């Protein structure tokens, strides 16, 4: 593993921002350090070599950005979260003629597909639209295809059953060339698009926002900025969902929310 000094990482962050406009300055350093070291090891170079190859208009800086962003997810990850949404959140949304959901930091789409399936089984999918966004264009391309390895479907199916799914997860995908392909009925209700939580602004008003396991990679100052964006994007009485290791504490907006579940970090905007 190629080891990077913190001073070298700061130089790299500055160079990425100078070339691409993408700002990693608010990201937690230990996570960036690990990912940058892995990138350099995979490409058999050191920081000095990398800095020499990063240039305006070149593809390397964008490849590096893709590698430095976090892209892990799985369908129905944290099944108890999906059960709670189904039992304690959906009842609030029943009276809306149209529903807008935002899955922020969607990676390759697993949570967005899970939410669509949940909405389908609750009878809300036809009047819903799910916006799934990420800053990593490579994973968004994969998400739009809705294709997963059959090996992954075992874990996905186990999660689905633990989330009290009504059917079999296989009802929502078909198998082609040893891959699982999410059904068109589910995919057509999801809009995948590029969005940077740390730099882009409000683009719609939502009744439900899921931004799970994203904030843990940001510094406190950046988290506060992102929380403000999420707050401004929520309709009154809309819901904000965070990961189990995340909280609204010290966000600057916690007084504007009612806690629905303090363990699963589900909140409702009340002012």
From TrEMBL:
Q: Which UniProt keywords apply?
A: Methyltransferase, Transferase
Q: What is its EC number?
A: 2.1.1.80
Top enzyme class, one word, equals transferase
The segment(s) forming the CheR-type methyltransferase domain are 1-270
Task: Note the InterPro entries from the entry.
Answer: Bact_Chemotaxis_MeTrfase, CheR_C, CheR_MeTrfase, SAM-dependent_MTases_sf
Q: Name one GO biological process term.
A: methylation
One GO MF term attached to the UniProt entry = protein-glutamate O-methyltransferase activity
Keyword presence, Nucleotide-binding: no
Give a Pfam family name.
Answer: CheR
Q: Which residues form a coiled coil?
A: none
Q: Which domain of life is it from?
A: Bacteria
**Cross-referenced PROSITE patterns:** CHER
Give the protein name, as stated in the record: Chemotaxis protein methyltransferase CheR
Show the taxonomic lineage. Answer: Bacteria, Pseudomonadati, Bacteroidota, Cytophagia, Cytophagales
